[in-house]
Amino acid sequence: MNFVKKFGRILLPMITPFKEDYSVDYKMAREISKYLLERNFCDSLIISGTTGEFHSLTFEERVKLFEEIKDEIGNKIPLIAGTGTIFTKEAIELTKAAEKIGYDAAMVVLPYYCHPTQDGIYYHFKEIAKNTSIPIIIYNIPLFVNMSITPETAAKLSEIENIVAIKDEAGLNPLQTSEFIKKSRNRLTVYSGDDVMVLQVLSQGGVGVVSGASHVVGDMIRDMITSFLNGKVERSIKLFQILYDVFKSFFGISTERINPTPGVKLAFEIESGLPISRTRPPLMTYTREDREFIKRNLEKARAAYQELE
Questions:
Q1: What long-range pairs does 95-102 form, CB within 8 A, spacing at least 24?
Q2: Which of these is catalytic: 26, 103, 122, 139?
Q3: Domains of the chain, with CATH numbers?
Q4: 139 catalytic, yes or no?
Q5: Fewest Cβ atoms closer than 10 Å to its Cβ: which of 48, 68, 138, 303?
Q6: What is the pLDDT of residues 81-113, one digit of tens each?
Q7: Could you report how far apart the first and last alpha carbons of the chain are, in Å?
Q8: What is the model's pTM?
């Protein structure tokens, strides 16, 4: 719970804006961070996470992004650096760079594509933790990595002092939150990595969510979590039902899309008025029909929320 006291319930993986030539728009990134901070949509910001399209950023771009947002935000809210890479040495260097810049924690995704053993996963995180003093959040996302850290490996890692939390994409294994908590003897703080699963994770002892949707409905998500924790479960369920179509709309009209980042960026553009919906290929910017679909769902959610109030 010490982690929650500092970093809060809503960790927001901030989108990364791109210019017409697909270079990173660092000036706009600063604007986005200010916008989110002013609206109190999150308790901590994650820079260079999946929603930030880290997979298409170079090492130098990620470090530059860390520097720009730290310079803009300072110590107003905790900053978490997404430092996961496929190569252990590079992940170590990126985490060390984030710590030097002044980041409060690092979120590290499981090594993707190479499909290591559980021993390899343990080694990867142990070496990263050994080379930094900031807290490490394990990022478990089997939907994209095509493998999952086992509760046994996570528990073994939780014995390392600065490996303190896990972001779990609970949609594929809804009960794994309980396994992480039980096997680690409550040493791991668990966050839902999926907006749709936040109540299920909270009900098992999880503490919050890493929420892309909080770019646009962070106030409603905060209300949903607070209501649940304060025993107002009926209100929390109603809020989830209001938000459900918004969460689903990030995949666009086509159900073939599995990465919701283009939808989150488009929703944020609609709500903020900032021109940031461009994604780096092969992720493609959504169509006009997708824009209208997302806009309608946002408007319906806002209207329903006002009625609930």
A1: 95/128, 95/131, 95/132, 95/134, 95/136, 96/131, 96/132, 97/63, 97/66, 98/63, 98/66, 98/134, 99/132, 99/133, 99/134, 101/63, 101/66, 101/67, 101/70, 102/70
A2: 139
A3: 2-217 (3.20.20.70)
A4: yes
A5: 303
A6: 999 999 999 999 999 999 999 999 999 999 999
A7: 30
A8: 0.97
